């Protein structure tokens, strides 16, 4: 009983007293536990995923939520007028978008209105500059720039 109480106190302190930050290799951008590489080179979806695998064993970006999406869009705006592959495909079932790295069905998406539906020759997704980087479905063999994500190195720092 006493041990349980001690554990609770320690856990509360851990979440309150320690902050975590992410470190990445040179050229990679850290954010919330991940590292991102914006690689400017006109590349097909498959070649883009291969490029990521060869660099830090990363994968095409997997965007989990609005916070990650918004962070990435800020960066895309700075890099101006480029399309970026994201690791999302609907190759198995039309209109059912799955993340390429773990085959999970996407719960958060940011498709431009009219995109992301059942278009059977457009099975890959890119962020589109003309719609402020909302997502559009395109033919996987078109060539756009590459956005890779890998797990960052987490460091803890104790506050106070
Ligand atoms: Ca992610
Ligand atoms: Ca499709």
Automatic annotation (TrEMBL):
Source organism of this protein record: Dreissena polymorpha (Zebra mussel)
Cross-referenced Gene3D superfamilies: Mannose-Binding Protein A, subunit A
InterPro entries in alphabetical order: C-type_lectin-like (IPR001304), C-type_lectin-like/link_sf (IPR016186), C-type_lectin/snaclec_domain (IPR050111), C-type_lectin_CS (IPR018378), CTDL_fold (IPR016187)
Protein name (database record): C-type lectin domain-containing protein
PROSITE patterns: C_TYPE_LECTIN_1 (PS00615), C_TYPE_LECTIN_2 (PS50041)
High-level lineage: Eukaryota, Metazoa, Spiralia, Lophotrochozoa, Mollusca
Signal peptide: 1-19
Entry keyword set: Disulfide bond, Signal
Keyword Transport: no
All copies of domain C-type lectin, residue ranges: 31-149
């Amino acid at each position: 009983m006493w041990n349980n109480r001690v554990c609770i106190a320690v856990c509360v302190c851990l979440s309150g007293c320690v902050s975590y930050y992410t470190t990445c290799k040179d050229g990679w951008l850290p954010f919330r536990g991940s590292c991102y590489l914006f690689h400017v080179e006109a590349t097909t979806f498959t070649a883009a995923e291969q490029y990521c695998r060869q660099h830090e064993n990363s994968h095409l970006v997997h965007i989990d939520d609005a916070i990650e999406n918004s962070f990435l869009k800020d960066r895309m705006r700075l890099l101006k007028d480029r399309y970026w592959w994201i690791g999302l495909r609907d190759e198995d079932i039309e209109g059912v978008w799955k993340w390429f790295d773990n085959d999970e069905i996407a719960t958060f998406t940011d498709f431009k209105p009219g995109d992301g539906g059942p278009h059977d020759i457009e099975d890959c997704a890119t962020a589109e500059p003309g719609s402020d980087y909302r997502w559009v479905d395109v033919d996987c063999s078109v060539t756009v720039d590459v956005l890779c994500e890998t797990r960052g190195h987490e460091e803890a720092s104790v506050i106070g």
